[in-house]
Amino acid sequence: MSDMVERTLTALPGLFLQNQLGGPAASRAPFFSRLGGLIRGVTALSSKHEEEKLIQQELSSLKATVSAPTTTLKMMKECMVRLIYCEMLGYDASFGYIHAIKLAQQGNLLEKRVGYLAVSLFLHESHELLLLLVNTVVKDLQSTNLVEVCMALTVVSQIFPREMIPAVLPLIEEKLQHSKEIIRRKAVLALYKFYLIAPNQVQHIHTKFRKALCDRDVGVMAASLHIYLRMIKENSSGYKDLTESFVTILKQVVGGKLPVEFSYHSVPAPWLQIQLLRILGLLGKDDERTSELMYDVLDESLRRAELNHNVTYAILFECVHTIYSIYPKSELLEKAAKCIGKFVLSPKINLKYLGLKALTYVIQQDPSLALQHQITIIECLDHPDPIIKRETLELLYRITNAQNVVVIVQKMLEYLHQSKEEYIIINLVGKIAELAEKYAPDNVWFIQTMNAVFSVGGDVMHPDILSNFLRLLAEGFDDETEDQQLRLYAVQSYLTLLDMENTFYPQRFLQVMSWVLGEYSYLLDRESPEAVMTRLYKLLRSDSISSETKAWLFAAVTKLTPQAHSSPIVENLIQEFTVSLNTCLRQHAFELKHLHENEELMKSLLQSAQNCDDIMADASLSFLDGFVAEGLSQGAAPYKPRHQRQEEQLSQEKVLNFEPYGLSFSSSGFTGRQSPAGVSLGSDISGNSAETGLKEAGSLKMDGIKKLWGKEGYLPKKESGAADKLEAAHAPAESAMMENVDQAMTRKDQAQGHTPSTEEKEKQLLASSLFVGLGPENTINLLGKADVVSYKFRRKSKPKVAQSDKMPSAHAAPSSTLSPVSDVAGGDEDSLSAADRGDGELGSELLGSESVLELPSVENLSSVSLPVSSLFAGNDMEVFHPPSSSATSAVKEVSLAALLEETPECRRSALVEICSNETVAVSSYKVWKDECLLLVCSVTSKTDSEFTDAQLEIFPLENFKIIEQPGCPSPVMEAESTKSFQYGVQMESPCVEGTLSGFIKYQMMDTHPVQLEFSMNLSLLDFIRPLKISTEDFGKLWLSFANDVKQNIKISEPRVALASVLTELQQKLRLCVVDVIGSEGLLACKLLPSTPCILHCRVHADVVALWFRSSSSVLSDCLSCHCQKVMQTS
């Protein structure tokens, strides 16, 4: 609504002025009297009811006017302005939407302008009426009138959805070459909007973005920075070559070379400076060579940005952020630290907030900065401004370690008790819970802290906190004694809390209490189960307890019933709740009644946690295999998933084509995607026909869990190996660094002839507690980086059975050195057979039959939501995969049998020259090995004289990792000789394509060193290898992967055979055909070293339906992009 108000109020004065200048007074009177009278009437009202009555009368009048056939375009324009005002106040004026579109299609410039303004305010991107605006926008984009073109470009960049982009994209590309700078600027901004909502549709015009960056008009160049900032955030390595251009632009801006109209309060183009600084910070991150190019301009920016206006502070803040983001330089860091000190010590609240914000960021690179401003930080904890307080707590959260966690959490809890904002409570309780689990000094402190979190956080906190606390109690640690002590103290504390009179607890806290008491009350020596049941029964009868919490309480009483079978509470519960109106509670009551009547069954099902084996679930429902097989033998139809049924239905019916344009297919963006409900592979996986598309972050992941139910029923648990013991938590040590800081502060006070007051002594004492562990002798846990302090409450280590010697892992013994190029290029049979075995071993490793996941010994765990995503998730958690099976489905089709044969071969690319001069030439080629991509660079001397110290280096940029570098530089390179350098490259994070840059450095006799730079383009396909797995393994992988991408690709040849499609995918994308089942094909591949991706392919008429699933969502997107290119060019 704020954006609507701003745009409307900005446009209204211009409309008034133009109307004032465009006609006689008689024609202007109705407009001003009606609109002005309406505004005065609304502002004079004293109640919302009166306002609603007045606006409804106005809307009724407007509806009659716009619907009348005698209404002229001028009157329609005036009605649109009044409709905008009514809509701005929050009232529905949908009857005028179609008339706004009509007004934009006809009339003079002013009327079209009002129509476009109304459309942009009334409609959103998914509104159905937008389709009626496409022809109008296309016509105006082709107009020779600059105003009409500008209006069309503006509305395109505001409300056009991705489905309508192909209709206007060619016209907007033409506008990049327009003679008027305002047209070029608006065209760039429209393309920026397209890049945000559909990046795949504008990939082909990246070269035109570079032309916009070099445009002669500053406004066009500034508009292009929006696109580059976004693209560099996603892939900074692909734009390293533009660093000098950005540095040059920033130098011109800082030097005041831009026109005066771009200055703001004598500050040259401040927003342009901020964008350039952000871009440089992304380009220079972890890159020394690139950072060296920007050191001078950053120093100049710090020097010229004098503290004389608010916008200057923003520039300094971004400059400090950039300096600490790029490769560090000591001189710049010192200047940035001084700048932060000016912010933090400033009496102005805004500057102090900026200082704390900057300090929170840079503290990860330089923890000593917190020591320099510790007294100021202590004062900020008691600052009257809540924003300053909150940012100070965020800073303390960043520097928390095992030595200061108690004091910092205490400060957070104090602020939490004072806060009333829901967002702050949600954010802060999550951080407190994370710190409590990570650095808790003992069990008592941990339970008390979590009790405070549950009490204050209440029902607004994230459910993950509750679920993971229960999981932590259930799974325990490696020390069984410590597990029992933690659970016993939790039970005792909850009983104490329940005994308190007139105390209200949030519903989720009561749910935690009921679950813990139901599971671990047997640990009590002095309390009987009847006493615990009495407290729970009292809560069950309370009217303030929700139905959901009562279900938790009922489950807890049910668990305690075997220990107190003769208790009258059980009879009272059954009698009272079997007639309850609540269906859930009535169901619980009848279950308890049947169990109570069969004591032997109840004791076998409701065992206490000390006697209960870990409860496992059969995720594949294999115990139903007999039922499914019997049904199929009697003629029952096999299950077909929903998407397959829809495709068959579409093939039988004539339906409308909802694809907007022929070249527009489903986008492969990273957001807004949902997993399908299920999949049927047409194989023998009969137990997987239920819907399995569970949200990864919303429920307990059951894939790969040890089977406890089989065809014969319950399977007894086998003895598992003992878990490894966790080392005892280290005791906090005294920090000598803080003692030195305190002594230095004392000497400073004595030198000034000042005796510290009691308040100052308290601040120094608090500082010594908060900032302990930040000295050079201590380690600091920087959240967001690798943890150097082990978790206090670490998940129990699950026992694992070693793999058989007959099935070695593909990663068990990685080769330490890369094989020579001659062996690879020549296709040595031994190496190829080993590579062939590697793919199969990867499938075995992914689906290891011996790796099982044990759940905590918890009864009735289905009533507790335990999502996978966790605030407490640590790096020590292990991931298990579904069990393996060696069965492979046979392919009956003779025409497709050749695709399933193993064709291992190691290929290489052609030799390509990447840089040269009159002295040397550097060429390279790729060798696609099974474990990595091998880049072979050959340096050839072209002169008759020799040179020394020939060194070739490639930089490990973002997304890529150099796993092997050549040795020392060649001391002497003879004339007209060639030397080879080999580099092993792996892709760390999937991307469609990327660039590696490097240089060749050498020295001729009696001359200065010479350096040549070069770059090499790499594609995702360079790192894709076939993955050979069985059909059953494919099915289990399919169920275990939650990241999926669907894409329908239209091909040029209708009725193309499935065999030709699979051949294209196998040969051009290096995919392995796993199986062909009817009209469906199954393929698999892996991204080196071991990220699998599987593909389901189906051909229908002239459309190929591809369905990707992988453990990486980015890999599925990137691979689908390459598939689209291959299928459309074949």
Automatic annotation (TrEMBL):
Transmembrane segments: none annotated. The keyword Protein transport applies. It holds the Pfam family AP4E_app_platf. It is a peripheral membrane protein. It comes from the Eukaryota. The keyword Membrane applies. Residues 798-843 are annotated as: Disordered. InterPro entries: Adaptor_Complx_Large_Subunit, AP4_complex_esu, AP4E1_C, ARM-like, ARM-type_fold, Clathrin/coatomer_adapt-like_N. It is found in: Endomembrane system. Residues 1025-1128 form the AP-4 complex subunit epsilon-1 C-terminal domain. SMART domains: AP4E_app_platf (SM01356). Keywords: Golgi apparatus, Membrane, Protein transport, Transport. Belongs to the adaptor complexes large subunit family. Component of the adaptor protein complex 4 (AP-4). Adaptor protein complexes are vesicle coat components involved both in vesicle formation and cargo selection. They control the vesicular transport of proteins in different trafficking pathways. AP-4 forms a non clathrin-associated coat on vesicles departing the trans-Golgi network (TGN) and may be involved in the targeting of proteins from the trans-Golgi network (TGN) to the endosomal-lysosomal system. Adaptor protein complex 4 (AP-4) is a heterotetramer composed of two large adaptins, a medium adaptin and a small adaptin. This is AP-4 complex subunit epsilon. The gene is Ap4e1.
